[in-house]
Amino acid sequence: MHLNKYTPREVGDEDDAEHEPSRLDCAFFRTDTGNEPVREWLRSLPVEAKKEIGSDIERVQWQWPVSKPLVDGLRGGLYEVRTKVGRIQYRVLF
Q: Cα 84–80–69 angle (5° rounding)?
């Protein structure tokens, strides 16, 4: 299972002036050896799936909180973004 790491951030936080204001700061999970398995997985997908997943992650980032059917809460503060492309359901955990 691959996880994306999302850190809550309030709009207008002054501690990081280089970034545009957003509700959730988004970063790919990185292993101790520097691999980014989620990014690698996304790159392996068809173009249409990459675009849809990216669009859904962006929506969650800028419009948090988002609920079903796009986002489902699991347990212990773990959530999933659920993107359907054709007959395939893609899930990215955060």
A: 50
The amino acid sitting at 20 is: E
Residue 92 CA to its chain's centroid (Å): 6
Round to whole Å and give the CA distance between 94 and 84. Answer: 17
DSSP-assigned letters across all residues of 1-52? --BEEEEE--TT-SS-TTSPP-SEEEEE---TTS--HHHHHHHHS-HHHHHH
pLDDT tens column, 8-40: 454 454 554 454 444 788 888 999 999 999 999
Q: Which two tokens stand for residue 54?
A: 């990216």
> Mean pLDDT score of the chain, rounded to an integer?
83
Give, for 93, the enclosing helix (H) or strand (E).
Answer: strand 88-93
Predicted structure pTM score: 0.71
Neighbouring CB atoms inside 10 A of 39's CB total 14
